[in-house]
Amino acid sequence: MHLPVSLAIRLLTHNIRYATHRPFKGEELWHIRAPRLLNELRFNTSQIPPTFICLQEVLHNQLEDIIAGLPDFNYIGVGRDDGKEAGEYSPILYRPDVWELLKFQPVWLSETPDKPSKGWDAATIRILTVGVFRHRDSGKKVLVLNTHLDHRGDTSRLESAKLIDRIAMEESNGQFGKLPVVLSGDFNSPPDDTAYQYVVNDTPFVDVKGMVEEKDIYGNDHTSTGFTDDTSNDSRIDFIFVRKNDTDGDDGQDWEVQNLAVLANKFDDGVYDSDHRAVVADLLLC
């Protein structure tokens, strides 16, 4: 009898804050933040080859800087404004010597998901990055989704969550067979918001925080901090979800969560690398 080999995967998601020329009070320009952010990414991924880095609010020049600083990584993703290089990316970074890219697809979170478009009551164009990867050593495949939901439109967030669930269902039961799924991103939706509630109550997605005992989680709870020490507006809006398997006796993979952390975004020098904190999960694909 052949027993499946488990695969340890690290997923890091971080809204890195787009490179503005008009920073908020307490915010540094990108050229100051960039080295600190790259140090975070390098330190947290260097010893775990099967890592995915899922970022949000990434402009093209920032993506170029990040890839230059992480030369063993490649990325999938497009600028949301034109499907090329304009506007923010929600890229997925991966090591091509570890993962073979089988499929990449951008999906716009709107009524016309196949082209750049703003949906429902959203303030801006929003996008979902879809990637199917095969682990070169084990042959295991995984569907990785990365997104950034709207910060103003309640209807947009809810309808986007419904669209993401539909895409996950289609892609995880498509041409590459039954796939395990992981979803990450900035949802702009705290746990009491309708979009988050829809994801955890009306879809097979599970917030990985609920799969780890509270005492075993490293770091903070809140992921959105602004560029200030005032914590009154801090919130938890950045998430990693895994998708539950069907229970019909098939041989699909299951997820386990080994570690979960919310990292610091400021150290002794007082510089915030972003107005969000990174979320890191060590996942076991059984």
Key terms:
286 residues, alpha+beta, 7-stranded mixed sheet, 15 strands, 19% helix
Question: How would you describe this protein?
Answer:
Helix 1 links the parallel strand 1 and strand 2 (51-56). The strands form three sheets. A seven-stranded mixed sheet has the order 3-4-2-1-15-14-12, covered by helices on one side. A six-stranded mixed sheet has the order 5-6-7-10-13-11, with helices on one face. It has 286 residues and is an alpha+beta fold. Helix 3 packs parallel to helix 4. It has four helices and 15 strands.
Output mean pLDDT: 95
Classify the beta-strand content into a percent band.
Answer: 25-35%
Measured distance between first and last alpha carbons = 16 Å
Structural class: alpha+beta
Describe the structure concisely.
This protein is 19% helix and 29% strand. With 286 residues, the chain is an alpha+beta fold. A hairpin with a 2-residue loop joins strand 8 (173-174) and strand 9 (177-178).
What topology emerges from the helices and strands here?
Blueprint: E1 7-15, H1 30-45, E2 51-56, H2 60-69, E3 74-76, E4 92-94, E5 99-108, E6 127-135, E7 141-148, H3 154-171, E8 173-174, E9 177-178, E10 181-186, H4 194-202, E11 205-207, E12 218-219, E13 238-243, E14 255-262, E15 279-285
Parallel strand pairs: 1-2, 7-10, 12-14
Antiparallel strand pairs: 1-15, 2-4, 3-4, 5-6, 6-7, 8-9, 10-13, 11-13, 14-15
